[in-house]
Amino acid sequence: MGLLNFTDFLFESEKTTFGIFSEGSTPIVIVAPHAVDADDKNTLEIAKELAMRLNAFLAINDTFHKPCEKKCEYDEDFNHLPPVVDGKLDWSKRVPEMKTFYDTIEEYANKASKLSKDNNKRCLVLFIHGLKHDKYDIDLGAGARSAPNMVINAEQHAQSKDNTGEITAPIKFVEEFREVLKKKGLKVGTGDVFSAWDGQNGTQYLQSKGIDCYSIQLEINSHLRDEPSKTAELLSSAVQEMKDYSESIFYLPQDVK
Ligand SMILES: [Zn+2]
């Protein structure tokens, strides 16, 4: 794994008024949009340790939570992008911190992709979430959903009424990620619970900006989140074990989707 250099990386994160941010030295960005206890518990710890292990860029929201029944303080779903008006995201519909969050993710993705092999402008962005039920240990959302006899059904993707987004990572890449995680004894879905195919899902952000990074939403169940350090270690090794990791992120042309 010549791409990842674990020895000379100094992890320094910056705490802002609403989150934790740090720059990395590999073409990987880790994002935790719901890292408050009331929402996706322990995703802060997982995201932070995963970024540290992968020398990745890191963006965490640890302040704003999903909407309360009645409007309350720090009430904003950081995974729900604002509506598009005249071809642009209407950020006046969200708190300013959320725009800062996504501007930073975009900046990190651009910087991360410059670190890719041969500067081919590609990176991997993992959105870390909490899954409420136990059908799967981890569900991988990349703008598509499994169907019988197919890992991901792109046709179904195109026909769904909820789907206004794009497929955010090559199917081949998502399949491989799933297989590596399965070999570690996990039950893994591919968008079965949360497909991240709604155009307003945070996972779709970079695609909507035309940035050629692979975005995957990792919905992690509570058992795995109860052991954040172990889970971060497992995810880190899974990313590094992917056979096509270097090839798909750093070598292949854009014909893999
Ligand atoms: Zn979430």
Outline:
By secondary structure, the protein is an alpha/beta fold.
Radius of gyration: 17 Å
Shape category: globular
Provide the list of bound ligands, each named once. Answer: zinc ion
Q: Termini distance?
A: 24 Å
**Count of alpha and pi helical runs:** 8
CATH class: Alpha Beta
Order of helices and strands: EEEHEEEHEEHHEHEHHH
Question: Mind summarizing the main beta sheet?
Answer: 8 strands, mixed
In CATH, the topology is named Aminopeptidase
Cross-sheet strand order for the largest sheet:
1-2-4-3-7-10-8-9
Count of strand segments: 10
SS content category = alpha/beta
CATH superfamily: Poly-gamma-glutamate hydrolase, zinc-binding motif
Number of domains: 1
CATH architecture: 3-Layer(aba) Sandwich
Mean pLDDT value: 85
Q: Which stretches are poorly predicted, pLDDT < 50 over at least 5 residues?
A: 1-9, 250-257
Quaternary state of this entry equals: single chain
| Helical content class | 25-40%
Measured by DSSP, the beta-strand proportion falls in: 15-25%
